[in-house]
Amino acid sequence: MLRSSSFKFVVGAGLVALGAVTLTYVLNGRKRKRTKIIEMMDEFQKPYVHMKDPDRVEELVTQLIKDGKSKLLVVTDFDRTLSRFMDNEGRKVPTCHGVLDIATILPEEYRKKAIATREHYYPLEMSNTLSREEKYQLMTDWWTSAHELLVECNLNRGDIAEMVRDAKVILREHSNIMFEMLEYYGVPLLIFSAGIGDILLEAIKLENLHSYQNVQVISNFMEFNDEDKLVGFKGELIHTYNKHEAAVHHPEYFERHKKRDNIILLGDTLGDLSMVDGMPYTKHTLTIGFLNDHIEQNLEMYKENFDIVLVSDETMDLPIAVLKKIL
User: Fold this and answer.
1) 126, 131, 130: which is closest to 80 by C-alpha?
2) Buried-most residue among 1, 205, 230, 295 (CB within 10 A)?
3) Contacts of 235 (CB under 8 A, 6+ apart)
4) Whole-number mean pLDDT of the chain?
5) What CATH number corresponds to the domain at position 291?
């Protein structure tokens, strides 16, 4: 069942548009036919869309369309991928860990230490000179320190919802449409986050996206004692550069969806590309990268690694446009 009229309207409009699409465009003063699928999609013509190899993107999109929805799995990061980087007022939207950094309900000493830790490690995460191996260890150190600091705060489970509301974590524009499309057509959506799962779930709950049966979340989840006090974190640590290990720790999920070997991957860091590395059954993977920060420094590197790079785009419009073709 559709959850809102917005999805029905957008899909309907998309189907009409496909039948009435203009098949010519102007290049160097001359009209030329649009012969490729991605050329006929207006979302690919935006100035913030970058591709090193449009022919490869064309081949991948064509293959995904040919194989259809029964072969598709969507895998997405959360922080600054599903969630926005900037809001409409130019404020940086907090990440899951950032929610804690600014939470007034936590001790001032914690916030000072957490912010200092982030200011040290974040530039290293975004560096284009450090290797993935170097970043792997640095991110392990960062996440471990952040979690240890948090445990010291005696956080109560009931405080999480209030902190997320106060931090105003918002998702990319039209994320709700993507969620609704995928549920309607029975396509699994894996949210794979190096953030904090408890905060992530509260954020999507605020957007009324928490009850979708096709959504699975793999993240760092808090562990509370009988008094609802934080005492640690469950399972293996997940950070931006060890996501390839997920298939080892969650084999049941990937075994259940082993026939869905076509992947659309959404991420905002190079580490997110490893989200599918450990999946044993992948065949075709279309990678879409959101480049939000340090743009000049990282654009060429992102183009080398992601099939499509979206620069300072706070919407889900391009992924939705691709999904419309497939579903």
Assistant:
1) 126
2) 230
3) 220, 221, 249
4) 88
5) 3.40.50.1000
| Intra-chain end-to-end CA distance of the chain, in Å | 16
Query: How many Å apart are CA 233 and CA 4, to the nearest integer?
Result: 36
| Region of residue 174 (phi > 0: left; psi between -120 and 50: alpha; otherwise: beta) | left
DSSP one-letter code for 130: S
Provide the annotated active-site residues. 77, 79
The closest of 69, 109, 122 to 240, measured between CA atoms, is: 122
* Pairing of the two strands 49-50 and 30-33: unpaired
* Residue 316 · residue 175 · CB < 8 Å: yes
Q: Which residue has the higher pLDDT, 214 or 13?
A: 214
Confidence of residue 251 (pLDDT cuts 50, 70, 90): confident
Tell me the CB-side half-sphere exposure of residue 36, using CA atoms within 13 A. Answer: 15
Distance CA 306, CA 63 (A): 17
Tallying the residues shown for the chain, one arrives at 327
Q: Which of 46-55, 60-69, 215-224, 251-260 has the weakest average pLDDT? A: 251-260
Instruction: State the burial class of residue 181 (Cβ atoms within 10 Å of its Cβ: 0-12, 13-18, 19+).
Output: buried
Q: What is the pLDDT of residues 134-185, one digit of tens each?
A: 998 998 998 899 899 899 988 999 999 999 999 999 999 999 999 999 999 9
At 15 the pLDDT is 38
Report if residue 73 sits inside a domain: yes
Q: Is residue 158 part of a domain?
A: no
Burial (Cβ within 10 Å: 0-12, 13-18, ≥19) of residue 50 = middle
The total number of structural domains that make up the chain = 1
Both structure tokens of 168 = 């105003």
Report the distance separating Cα 63 and Cα 284, nearest Å. Answer: 8
Question: If DSSP codes are grouped into helix, strand and coil, which group holds residue 291?
Answer: strand
Q: What is the pLDDT of residue 4?
A: 52
Residue-number span of the structural domain to which 297 is assigned: 46-86+167-326
Q: The tokens of 10 are what?
A: 């957008």
